[in-house]
Design goal:
9 helices, two-stranded antiparallel ribbon, globular, alpha+beta, seven-stranded antiparallel β-sheet
């Protein structure tokens, strides 16, 4: 199976650049709250914290950002998705991560917020100086993983050619994904790319696992079309 819940025992061998995910803390939850790229391959079991590259914030994409932020990024392994990556795929993703890693990002509390966006607008994908010069890429955890696969390995996991075709996501679901504080803080929602009262057409982490839960050839040739907000759960409830 190319995407599955990580078993408790004896566990599963996960390869580098597989996509690991964390569920919410709700009992029995299958709603994926966070996704990341596996840093080192090895055997892991359900809930074990594994080393990753990810955007939380801060972004930790390599040794430079890890040193700058003093973060050893890890993620509990609740669910995992993968496909058979070639050496060229892996090399491309390694090069992409290196480029993102060397972009200098502010490491203050305000600066961490500036690194993060769930907006799908191309204008929001970069932080720019007062002259409009690009300084560094902005991501959510989902867009970070998707960009690593698309720009690094040429693998387009999700159909996003027209964001208006993505399912609308309600406030209750946004809160499950990003935190209860977004229910009451309209300004903060707008700053991360969720303006107005909603619903919003944004990416949920669980969508990635439905994209990966297909044969390798399908993953490589046909981006997954998200059918509904319910695909934020994996397996879908």
């Amino acid at each position: 199976m190319p995407a599955q819940v990580v078993p408790k025992a004896p566990g599963i061998f996960i390869r580098r650049y597989s996509i690991v995910g964390k569920y919410t803390n709700e009992p029995g939850s299958r709603f994926v709250k966070h996704v990341a790229l596996i840093r080192d391959e090895g055997l892991t079991s359900h809930g074990t914290e594994v080393p990753v590259w990810d955007m939380r914030p801060p972004l930790v994409a390599g040794t430079i950002s890890a040193s700058r932020t003093q973060q050893d990024a890890k993620c509990p392994a609740h669910v995992v998705g993968w496909l058979s990556l070639t050496s060229d795929d892996r090399d491309g993703m390694t090069d992409w991560l290196a480029e993102v890693d060397k972009q200098e990002r502010p490491n203050t509390s305000w600066g961490l917020a500036e690194q993060y966006t769930v907006s799908l607008s191309p204008e929001d994908q970069w932080h720019r100086d007062e002259k409009g010069v690009r300084l560094y890429r902005r991501f959510s955890c989902v867009s970070f993983v998707l960009a690593a696969y698309l720009e690094g390995a040429g693998i387009n996991l999700l159909e996003m050619s027209d964001p208006e075709n993505l399912p609308a996501v309600r406030l209750d679901t946004v809160v499950r994904a990003y935190g209860e504080h977004l229910r009451r803080l309209n300004r903060v929602r707008a700053e991360v790319g969720l303006p107005g009262p909603g619903p919003w057409r944004n990416l949920l982490a669980g969508y990635i696992y439905h994209a990966m839960d297909r044969p390798d050839q399908s993953i490589r040739s046909v981006p997954y079309t998200v059918p509904s907000e319910a695909a934020g759960n994996f397996p879908m409830q």
